[in-house]
Amino acid sequence: MTRYLARRALTALVSVWLASVVVFGAVLAVPGDPAALILGMNAAPEALAAMRTRLGLDVPAPARYLRWSAGVVTGDLGESLQYQRPVGRLIRDRLGVSLPLALGAALLATLLAVPAGIFAALRRGTLWDPLLVLATQVGAAIPSFWLALLLILLFAVQLGWLPSGGFPGWDVSLGGSARALLLPVLALGLGQAAVMARLTRAAMLDVLSQDFVRTARAKGLAPFRVVGKHALRNALVTLITVLGLSLTNVFIGSIVVEQVFALPGLGRLALTAIGNRDYPLLQGVILLYAGTIVLLSFLVDLSYGWLDPRIRYA
Amino acid sequence: MTRPLWLITLLAGLLLAGHALAQDPPPVRGGTVTVAISADPPGWDPTLSTSQEIARVTYGNVYEGLVRFDRNGEIVPALAAGWQVSTDGLAWTFTLREGVRFHDGSPLTAEDVLFKFDRARDPDSGHVNQGYYAAVADVRAPDAGTIVFELTQPSRSLLYNLARPDAIIYPAALAETQRSQPVGTGPFRFARYVEGSEVRLERFDDYWNPELPYLDAATFRIIGDANARIAALQAGDIDLIGGAVPPEQVRVLQANPALKVASGTATAEITVAMNNSRPPFDDLRVRQAITHAIDKDAIVQGAFFGLGTVIGTHMSPSEAYYLDLTDTYPYDPERARALLAEAGYAGGLSFDFELPEPYAFERRTGEIIAQQLREVGITVNLSVVEWGTWIQRIFLAADYDMTIIGHSEPRDIDIYARPTYYYRYDNPRVAELLAEAESAPTAEAETAAYQAIARIIAEDAVNVWVFSPANTAAARADLYGFWTDQPTPAIDLTRVYRAR
Fold this sequence. Notes:
The complex is a heterodimer.
Chain A: H1 2-29, H2 34-39, H3 45-54, H4 61-73, H5 87-122, H6 128-141, H7 144-158, H8 174-208, H9 211-218, H10 223-260, H11 266-275, H12 279-307
Helix pairs in contact in A: 1-12, 5-6, 5-8, 5-10, 5-12, 6-8, 7-8, 7-10, 8-10, 9-10, 10-11, 10-12, 11-12
Chain B: H1 3-23, E1 32-37, H2 52-58, E2 67-69, E3 75-77, E4 80-85, E5 91-96, H3 110-121, E6 136-143, E7 146-151, H4 158-162, E8 188-194, E9 198-203, E10 217-222, H5 226-234, E11 240-241, H6 247-254, E12 259-264, E13 269-274, H7 284-293, H8 296-304, E14 308-310, H9 333-342, E15 349-356, H10 360-374, E16 378-385, H11 387-396, E17 402-407, H12 428-438, H13 443-459, E18 464-469, E19 471-476, E20 479-480, E21 497-498
Parallel strand pairs in B: 1-10, 1-11, 15-16, 15-17
Antiparallel strand pairs in B: 2-3, 4-5, 5-7, 6-7, 8-9, 9-10, 11-19, 12-19, 13-17, 13-18, 14-18, 20-21
Helix pairs in contact in B: 7-9, 12-13
């Protein structure tokens, strides 16, 4: 087990390192000049050259990568070209929006999807099942930015219950900030719930058709215990995988939702960084995304053994 | 052909404007507004970046220069109470306004002004647009209240350039921190900036004009999505969208009694740029044919609900020397086909047409133009290009066939005098005329020289100038005093108030 853990952790680290190389290379491969974007369309060539020197872009790329990765190892992600603040601090500020948004959406999706999926699986053959399947199909097909606009039109423009966007900041207003996240969590969580419900239903149907469930039923166990103790436990491995994937999805999906709701989150930070060719900032944000995805899949892998003793690590 | 239409539009606009002015209630002191802007700027110092987002927030609100543009584009006194020009045109003398204070409490001095223009002329300072001061030999302060610009040759554009967003003055001692903490002399001081979220300005109580501003505070909220901006206005979360309201949303907003929409002029020319050094665009007949093939009226009426003025050269109707040259090569598909045949492309012609991703007006216009070109036998390969790539490959390296962009800088016809500019148009006559305009003895002679340039580039069909989009602003119905025209990119809140 310890050897497995060590090997798995090493793979994760190598993945993050590879991601950092790809990120650095990809950012360089995209044409664009931060100096030109800062100085505008009428900048003179001399002014552009001076700005490139100021931004440290006159240093060759490999040297820049070494300098950057040495910084990353010591926890220093460099300074944003646009904001002229440490990238680490910018990311930390934005996590205050993106983390609650992603976790809230994943929680909402789980709370809706798992009961709905189990219910649909158990009601197979009744009208409930196709109804729920239809609902999840529609839900999964609606793009989150469109749902976000619909939610704004209903709850902000028509009813006036919730703000249409923006974020006051946790330090300014705790309640106001929570309210500002309600619609984004809904917009992000509902689509995810639809996808998760479909997968839950499929996993449950699969388990319910297996012999040990028939045996459990045959020996007269209450339906509640059959589902709760035997079936659900066995479906959990699939469900955790789905949950891990959906956390990744909401993390990435929040980029679009943050744009529509004008939330100062990590996704918008990434978009701004791409638009301005803010290389250090972009590298920092993508590294964080990559690290999160690797960490989540690592945790999901670990949970298998804990959930299902039949799975052994060698 | 198009003249009566825009004349009628203009007259109707004037009538509406006059009507609105007559109805404006008296200004009220106090209150706050929330205004939408679309992106975080690269810092807040307008002398270090030409980002229009900086100007929108700071011009006239936080920062002022010696002179400034008013809402009609007139150059009016700001930190200079007045100015004189010597008879030979080589010395401009500005009298500093007395009793002006910066937001940090320090007084405005001649040293601050000298420091600024030394920086503006120092190539290592990072100050943008240094070309604006090419004719300036020296700037000096004979006494504490006077600034003199000494020129090597008369410069008609000096005063105009001194009114631009980057010509502002800040305390010499605080030059390094303006990027993050602007300190100016304007009616509002810069109070708080939350990146990606909002900027807050608060009333500056020591403003040199004690009657202004009317508002206590203003918040600029950064909302990147155009639809989200509209929704925020409808929901009452913001009070003003200063411009670029999508034309298709105008009717919806007009129908809402809580809101109002105002449409005025702006300085942009939506320009189909052609690489004049590259075949087939090095053949005048091909450029003429392309111009003849494009039905500009159909674009403005059909895709922009008439919210724009069709143009025929690199000039928007907001310019003082505006000239309508739309009839130089009017829409005439037959003529276009004939010219193409003459140039040897009777069998058709094909090239790349690249649209800039961030600009919806340009993308929309480009798609229609692609269709119109097809009707005369020109096949374009349409593609959308991300902005950083556009700047790098198309704008700086001129590696392209055809593209489309809005040139929003006012008074920028000088770009046709630069053979290295991305149009790759080389005509020494333009540079000569430009020099003539600069040193013209009278305003009339200056206008004549500029209009001569406008004619030359129109006849050479360097580009296709499609239209100048109207500046469309939308606001809560009780908000008054905001700019409807955009002689320079700005959301000037100095005289904005909420009626009771």
